[in-house]
């Protein structure tokens, strides 16, 4: 009996100290985690900028920086959507196909060298409608038929390319005729390129959606555990379809801007974007398994890769080596970024 | 129906039954719970506890009988109905979004437009945090609702689950009934003490149904204990009128036959099978030397920061170490891998059974022959028929139920899964040492006894056992040697052949 009393006193003592230790631990860990990951990305970015500016004095000029921002704008817009999809634990590979289909639809319905209809703003609506249809189709096939998103969107990539190629037909290249739009993307307003302003708007909206809307929060929840989402009665189905639709809309917007930038309509207007977007999301630290990550990190990832590309060109790396160099750096960066997330037993699937 | 002058029972079950096909999972259960009561619900796996709870949480509908909450008869069509009636369940498997904040997890059941999320789905974080803080406050927790759940320890996560369970009823000012389904199964001793205190506080705001396999805990926390066996409620007693032994007998239907272990001191002539020498891992443990002898169970005690789990995992090669040595059956090397450890005859039953101990999507028989195919193998091939008969033998020997070795392992109950994991190692012809990391976690007393009996018989066959027990009592019950660790260092070594440490002795060395 005496023992029991003493033991209970001891246990009482533990619980108060244990609580205190625990609570301070929680705060410390949270603060550390909040800083550590973005910080290492910023350091990498700074190192990269430092190295390239030493290699070539043209790198750190206003005109080149504006150039970098213009180059990063379209990947940024697409990457916001890709981040949302990856936060679900899925992946969207249809990016380039959607860009092609949307871009072609848009230019053929705007003032172009082939003539035809000039629907003005309606061209935007219809073109983005095409993107939306592809996105909703991917989302529905993925969610309702439970086909892995990897396969669905890989197919949709080619469906999009196919639509773009059919629209392109055998006629001459459609050229942009509207003088106000030509070169609009790289024109500077208030110190930044126009397309970058669009990207900033999309990033802002993306952060808002992810942070303060039901779609965003349920997206994170699905990435964490879809079983719990369903048993909690949250709208998993609708959110998944919506996220694929949002991602396709953003790819579509990217496709239109890329067409404006290129001046001509081409089915392969999005070529190379996927290779920046997905790695940028991963380098940013968003888990491919879903649930963890964010849009600002992805933004850093896109900058890292765009600057890498830009810097390599300026440093005189021969273009034939460039893709091999970029690829190798990419793999290294991902190994580095994912190091802390390895499993306890070091199992990877 | 109810007398108007007395307050109606928070929950009243009147001969409630539920069948699945021909299987009558719950038979004519009647139960009354008053406000402020903490009821212990005990029973072996398969006794019908889970089915009963699922009817209360709205996951199943009852076939017969009536369920009344606060004097009104209810028909739950889903979990949302149960929550609205004030019944919140904290499930055994944690159901929190670890990547989201505490607040969002607590508010997850609050409909849009009524809490921090408006009808358009936009979040008002200030409102969300305030509502969650209020729910936490009700149960006396001071966790910051902005904290992410992944930063919390298990006991804090349980608090968040409890806060979520009472959230809906708190908003509508009804008395909540919180159902806790084995909340302490995975907690360390000190954490359990904290949770026990918190559960007692719930008395002031509502009532609790507490499901646990640890009878001592039930005796400490609850006012009344109800026992289920074979779908029936066979006893309903105030805790003051029963003993632990009596509860065990009611639950299992037989006496405990845990014989007192006949212990001897380590013989001077025997040499250790596993010898850990000055093992150190920065930040985890330092200078740990432990010898495990054949035919002896060595239990390592310590709290969650003691480093005992890491030491044990190092022995199996699952975690690295910085300096020192581990020698297994004469082999000693710095590069110990899991493969090498298995080849040397070490088996490991991990604490994380679901992720490290078993392949749930594979039939039980294939799990058994996974590491050591034994007689099922012919060269590099496995003969399904031999594998099946081998599995049947283990199913019989370890009383694994149901006797269906071809069923997916994930469909078995926790206790039976654990027995399959154990069989996987016992199937080795060359098992020299068995490392058991919380082997009884989540098992009901009946299953725990079978597992313990099997551990003893393996041990008596000359295998060295290294055990990380859940409780001090478990160690005193089964071990021959006890090593106590505190803050990564050994703080006590006892050979139970001649030492007789009291529980308090051991506890003091742990803290």
UniProtKB/TrEMBL annotation, chain A:
<feature type="transmembrane region" description="Helical">
    <location>
        <begin position="68"/>
        <end position="91"/>
    </location>
</feature>
<keyword id="KW-0472">Membrane</keyword>
<dbReference type="InterPro" id="IPR001851">
    <property type="entry name" value="ABC_transp_permease"/>
</dbReference>
<keyword id="KW-1003">Cell membrane</keyword>
<dbReference type="GO" id="GO:0005886">
    <property type="term" value="C:plasma membrane"/>
</dbReference>
<feature type="transmembrane region" description="Helical">
    <location>
        <begin position="320"/>
        <end position="339"/>
    </location>
</feature>
<feature type="transmembrane region" description="Helical">
    <location>
        <begin position="39"/>
        <end position="56"/>
    </location>
</feature>
<dbReference type="Pfam" id="PF02653">
    <property type="entry name" value="BPD_transp_2"/>
</dbReference>
<dbReference type="GO" id="GO:0022857">
    <property type="term" value="F:transmembrane transporter activity"/>
</dbReference>
<keyword id="KW-0812">Transmembrane</keyword>
<keyword id="KW-1133">Transmembrane helix</keyword>
<feature type="transmembrane region" description="Helical">
    <location>
        <begin position="241"/>
        <end position="262"/>
    </location>
</feature>
<feature type="transmembrane region" description="Helical">
    <location>
        <begin position="188"/>
        <end position="210"/>
    </location>
</feature>
<feature type="transmembrane region" description="Helical">
    <location>
        <begin position="122"/>
        <end position="142"/>
    </location>
</feature>
<feature type="transmembrane region" description="Helical">
    <location>
        <begin position="268"/>
        <end position="288"/>
    </location>
</feature>
<protein>
    <submittedName>
        <fullName>Ribose transport system permease protein</fullName>
    </submittedName>
</protein>
<feature type="transmembrane region" description="Helical">
    <location>
        <begin position="295"/>
        <end position="314"/>
    </location>
</feature>
<feature type="transmembrane region" description="Helical">
    <location>
        <begin position="149"/>
        <end position="168"/>
    </location>
</feature>
TrEMBL record, chain B:
<dbReference type="GO" id="GO:0016887">
    <property type="term" value="F:ATP hydrolysis activity"/>
</dbReference>
<dbReference type="InterPro" id="IPR050107">
    <property type="entry name" value="ABC_carbohydrate_import_ATPase"/>
</dbReference>
<keyword id="KW-0547">Nucleotide-binding</keyword>
<keyword id="KW-0677">Repeat</keyword>
<feature type="domain" description="ABC transporter">
    <location>
        <begin position="11"/>
        <end position="255"/>
    </location>
</feature>
<dbReference type="InterPro" id="IPR003439">
    <property type="entry name" value="ABC_transporter-like_ATP-bd"/>
</dbReference>
<protein>
    <submittedName>
        <fullName>Ribose transport system ATP-binding protein</fullName>
    </submittedName>
</protein>
<dbReference type="InterPro" id="IPR003593">
    <property type="entry name" value="AAA+_ATPase"/>
</dbReference>
<keyword id="KW-0067">ATP-binding</keyword>
<dbReference type="Pfam" id="PF00005">
    <property type="entry name" value="ABC_tran"/>
</dbReference>
<keyword id="KW-0813">Transport</keyword>
<dbReference type="GO" id="GO:0005524">
    <property type="term" value="F:ATP binding"/>
</dbReference>
<dbReference type="InterPro" id="IPR017871">
    <property type="entry name" value="ABC_transporter-like_CS"/>
</dbReference>
<dbReference type="InterPro" id="IPR027417">
    <property type="entry name" value="P-loop_NTPase"/>
</dbReference>
<feature type="domain" description="ABC transporter">
    <location>
        <begin position="260"/>
        <end position="510"/>
    </location>
</feature>
């Amino acid at each position: 009996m005496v023992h029991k009393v003493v033991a209970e006193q001891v246990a009482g003592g533990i619980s108060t100290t244990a609580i205190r230790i625990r609570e301070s631990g929680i705060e410390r860990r949270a603060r550390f985690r909040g800083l550590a990951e973005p910080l290492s990305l910023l350091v990498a970015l700074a190192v990269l900028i430092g190295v390239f500016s030493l290699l070539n004095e043209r790198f750190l000029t206003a005109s080149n920086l504006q150039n970098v921002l213009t180059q990063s704008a379209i990947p940024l817009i697409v990457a916001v959507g890709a981040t949302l999809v990856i936060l679900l634990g899925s992946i969207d590979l249809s990016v380039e196909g959607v860009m092609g289909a949307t871009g072609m639809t848009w230019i053929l319905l705007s003032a172009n060298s082939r003539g035809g209809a000039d629907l003005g703003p309606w061209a935007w609506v219809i073109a983005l409608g095409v993107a939306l249809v592809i996105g909703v189709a991917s989302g529905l096939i993925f969610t309702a038929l439970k086909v892995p998103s990897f396969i669905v969107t890989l197919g949709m990539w080619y469906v999009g390319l196919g639509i773009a190629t059919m629209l392109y037909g055998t006629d001459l290249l459609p050229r942009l005729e509207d003088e106000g739009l030509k070169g609009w993307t790289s024109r500077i307003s208030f110190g930044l390129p126009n397309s970058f302003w669009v990207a900033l708007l999309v990033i802002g909206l993306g952060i808002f959606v992810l942070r303060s809307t039901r779609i965003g929060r349920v997206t994170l929840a699905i990435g964490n555990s879809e079983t719990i989402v369903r048993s909690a009665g949250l709208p998993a189905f609708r959110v998944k379809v919506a996220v694929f639709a949002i991602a396709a809309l953003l790819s579509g917007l990217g496709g239109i801007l890329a067409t404006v930038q290129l001046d001509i309509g081409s089915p392969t207007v999005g070529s190379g974007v996927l290779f920046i977007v997905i790695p940028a999301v991963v380098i940013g630290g968003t888990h491919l398994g879903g649930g963890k990550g964010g849009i600002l990190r992805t933004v850093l990832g896109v900058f890292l890769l765009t600057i890498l590309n830009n810097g390599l060109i300026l440093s005189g790396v021969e273009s034939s080596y460039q893709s091999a160099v970029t690829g190798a750096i990419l793999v290294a960066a991902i190994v580095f970024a994912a190091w802390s997330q390895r499993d306890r037993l070091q199992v990877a699937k | 129906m109810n007398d108007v002058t007395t307050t109606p029972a928070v929950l009243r079950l009147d001969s409630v039954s539920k069948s699945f096909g021909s299987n009558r999972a719950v038979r004519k259960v009647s139960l009354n719970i008053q406000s402020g009561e903490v009821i212990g619900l005990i029973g072996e796996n398969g006794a019908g506890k889970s089915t009963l709870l699922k009817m209360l949480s709205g996951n199943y509908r009852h076939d017969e009988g009536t369920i009344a909450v606060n004097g009104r008869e209810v028909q739950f069509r889903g979990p949302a109905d149960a929550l609205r009636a004030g019944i919140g369940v904290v499930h055994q498997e944690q159901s929190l979004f670890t990547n989201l904040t505490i607040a969002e997890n607590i508010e997850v059941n609050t409909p849009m437009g009524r809490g921090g999320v408006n009808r358009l789905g936009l979040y008002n974080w200030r409102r969300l945090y305030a509502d969650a803080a209020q729910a936490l406050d009700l149960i006396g927790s001071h966790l910051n609702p902005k904290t992410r759940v992944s930063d919390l320890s298990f006991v804090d996560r349980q608090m968040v689950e409890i806060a979520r369970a009472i959230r809906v009823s708190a908003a509508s000012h009804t008395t909540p009934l919180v159902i806790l389904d084995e909340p302490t199964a995975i907690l360390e001793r000190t954490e359990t003490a904290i949770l026990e205190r918190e559960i007692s506080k719930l008395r002031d705001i509502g009532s609790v149904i507490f499901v646990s396999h640890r009878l001592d805990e039930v005796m400490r926390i609850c006012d009344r204990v109800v026992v289920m066996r074979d779908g029936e409620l066979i006893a309903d007693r105030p805790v003051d009128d029963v003993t632990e032994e009596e509860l065990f007998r009611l639950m299992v239907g037989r006496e405990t036959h845990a014989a007192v272990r006949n212990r001897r001191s380590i013989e001077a002539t025997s040499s250790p099978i596993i010898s850990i020498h000055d093992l150190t891992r920065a930040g985890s443990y330092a200078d740990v030397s432990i010898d495990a002898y054949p035919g002896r169970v060595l239990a390592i005690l310590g709290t969650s920061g003691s480093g005992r789990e890491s030491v044990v995992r190092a022995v199996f090669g699952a975690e690295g170490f910085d300096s020192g040595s581990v020698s297994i059956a004469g082999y000693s090397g710095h590069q110990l891998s899991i493969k090498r450890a298995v080849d040397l005859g070490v088996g490991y039953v991990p604490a994380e059974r679901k992720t490290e101990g078993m392949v749930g999507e594979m039939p039980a028989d294939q799990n058994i022959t996974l590491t050591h195919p034994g007689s099922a193998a012919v060269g590099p091939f496995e003969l399904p028929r031999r594998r099946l008969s081998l599995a049947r033998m283990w199913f019989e020997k370890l009383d694994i139920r149901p006797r269906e070795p071809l069923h997916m392992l994930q469909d078995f109950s926790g206790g039976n899964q654990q027995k399959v994991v154990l069989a996987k190692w016992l199937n080795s012809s060359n098992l020299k040492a068995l490392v058991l990391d919380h082997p009884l976690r989540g098992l009901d007393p009946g299953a725990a006894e079978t597992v313990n009996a099997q551990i003893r018989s393996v041990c008596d066959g000359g295998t060295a056992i290294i055990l990380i027990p859940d409780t001090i009592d478990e160690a005193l019950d089964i071990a021959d040697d006890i090593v106590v660790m505190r803050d990564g260092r050994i703080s006590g070594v006892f050979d139970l052949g001649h030492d007789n440490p009291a529980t308090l002795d051991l506890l003091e060395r742990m803290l």
